[in-house]
Design a protein that fits this description.
Blueprint: E1 4-7, E2 12-15, E3 25-30, H1 41-59, E4 63-68, H2 75-83, H3 90-107, H4 123-135, E5 139-141, E6 147-149, H5 151-156, E7 177-178, E8 190-196, E9 213-215, H6 217-229, E10 233-239, H7 243-256, E11 271-277, E12 280-282, E13 285-286, H8 297-302, H9 307-314, E14 323-325, H10 327-351, H11 363-372, H12 377-396, H13 402-419, H14 432-446, H15 450-462, E15 465-470, E16 473-478
Parallel strand pairs: 3-4, 3-10, 7-8, 10-11, 12-14
Antiparallel strand pairs: 1-2, 5-6, 6-8, 8-9, 12-13, 15-16
Helix pairs in contact: 1-13, 4-6, 6-7, 9-10, 10-12, 10-13, 11-12, 14-15
Length: 479
């Protein structure tokens, strides 16, 4: 089945077709983290979903060039840097949170993007793009030396503003200037491409043809994505909160650079498909520190949850639906993964060193059909747990050979290459005291001291471990 999903640009479900003449290569861009603080779970809903999309494209046979930027200069970063008690450079400050982000990113089983550009490494490309907009008459300089994008001039030359979101230009303040990186929804105003240096910027500035300053947020992504993926590329992803103004402004400045100053030129399309993900609620409300429902990944790790449990929950709802993230939901994710783990452990024990043989199960095809239909993860998970139920039944009825068990494990491996919820390869080390208790229990059972055996089982459970008695001996498992 061909991959179909909702393209925000066309506002309808479309069949995905890469622009590559051979139909194999895909250019994919996602706005990455702004590294001024630890990322929270709302951020990671986007990054986990992008990772899943990239993995599913590869599952479908595409070769994906995945670019995710690091925003290492913007208003918030400069504010935090100025408030820092230590006098450190911009790069030293942002590197702290960039490192923390990728530590969390790895804990969530996310694949590192193909290219991870930092905004501050692409200032020349930003200046070149701004210069082209100035040349086309779409950008203008203000008395303080800043450069702004004119939405009215852009539209007068044939550009379209409001491709991702509907904007009522009779009600908005077109032509007013917005210097901040973020502004009110529906306020279609001229936005800053280059911000003239002010005392509050400190040492965060670069030279330009228009004076010392720094880039606006929106120009950063346009310059990086076009440099690394070309003037037109296949797929741009991000949260719905970025559709306007950030993504709308990306389109305008990118396509505006391809217009003619005298008009009559058709703009070169910037991105062919846009995917936007709905927002995250926490305990039924918008996440807020004041409400006590604001979680970073580290907060959840401190509560004993794992990256794979968080990943499972964040992939449990359709991407265009709001997801209510709760601790109860994380406990449910733990239970679901435990069911899956138990089934896989039985298959591994049965398969041993056998090679896979026999016809594949329905799992891979059912999963493919589900996600090819607008990334329907609910149907995808249903396919997985139907397979778990059927597999457990076959095992209980002793209807699986070792080679058939190996075949089922191979089927799961294909699906998990997309979901990435299996434990990471490094197995948890079982503490020596837990192993000693297991040995003592075995000795008690051999001596038929069942009271002591049961007591040890209870003690292990209180320490977070359970014993599964299998034909090949006891096996310890984390609760």
């Amino acid at each position: 089945m061909d991959l179909q999903f909702f393209n925000t640009l066309s506002h309808r479900i479309e069949t995905f077709k890469t622009s590559d003449p051979l139909g194999k290569k895909v250019g994919l861009y996602c706005c990455g983290p702004t590294v001024y603080d630890f990322a929270h779970i709302g951020n990671f809903r986007t990054f986990i979903f992008v990772d899943m999309v990239r993995r599913f494209l590869e599952f479908k046979g595409f070769q994906v060039k995945h670019v995710m930027n690091i925003t290492d200069v913007d208003d918030k970063i400069i504010q935090r840097l100025n408030a820092s008690p230590e006098k450190i450079t911009l790069r030293d400050y942002t590197s702290i949170y960039e490192k923390a982000f990728f530590e969390d990113f790895d804990q969530l089983n996310c694949l590192r993007p193909s290219i991870i550009p930092r905004a501050t490494d692409y200032i020349p490309q930003m200046l070149e793009l701004i210069g082209k907009l100035m040349e086309n008459g779409i950008a203008y300089q203000t008395p303080d030396g800043s450069i702004f994008f004119s939405i009215q001039r852009y539209m007068a030359l044939g550009g379209k503003y409001g491709q991702l979101v509907k904007i009522n230009f009779d009600e908005v303040r077109v032509g007013e200037r917005i210097k901040n990186d973020e502004y009110e929804k529906e306020n279609a105003a001229d936005f800053a491409l280059w911000k003239a240096r002010v005392p509050g910027d400190g040492e965060v500035f670069w030279p330009s043809p228009w004076g010392e300053g720094r880039p606006g947020w929106h120009i950063e992504c346009s310059a990086m994505s076009r440099k690394l993926l070309g003037e037109t590329f296949d797929l741009h992803l991000g949260g719905e909160d970025l559709a306007f103004p950030h993504h709308e402004d990306e389109i305008a400045q990118s396509e505006g650079s391809t217009l003619c100053k005298e008009g009559g030129c058709k703009p070169t399309p910037f991105v062919r498909y846009w995917l936007h993900f709905s927002h995250l609620l926490v305990e039924g409300k918008k996440m807020s520190k004041s409400l006590g429902n604001f979680y970073t990944l580290r907060d959840l790790f401190a509560k004993g949850y794992t990256g794979r449990e968080i990943r499972y929950l964040l992939l449990s709802a359709h991407y265009r639906e709001s997801l209510n993230f709760t601790l109860e939901g994380l406990n449910g994710a733990r239970s679901a993964l435990s069911r899956l783990d138990e089934c896989l452990a039985k298959l591994k024990e049965l398969a041993g060193a056998a090679e896979a043989s026999g016809a594949p199960s329905d799992l891979v095809q059912n999963f493919d059909d589900a996600l090819s239909n607008d990334f329907n993860l609910s149907a995808g998970w249903a396919a997985v747990f139907d397979w778990v139920r059927q597999t457990n039944k076959l095992i209980a009825e002793e209807k699986l050979s070792a080679s058939e068990a190996a075949r089922l494990l191979a089927d799961w491996a294909r699906v998990d290459a997309v979901l990435a919820v299996s434990p990471q390869k490094k197995e948890e080390e079982i503490p020596a005291e837990i192993l000693a208790l297991l040995e003592e229990r075995q000795a008690a059972r051999k001596a038929k001291n069942f009271a002591r055996s049961d007591a040890i089982r209870d003690e292990l459970k209180s320490k977070g471990w359970v014993i599964e008695d299998t034909p090949k001996g006891p096996r310890l498992k984390r609760i």
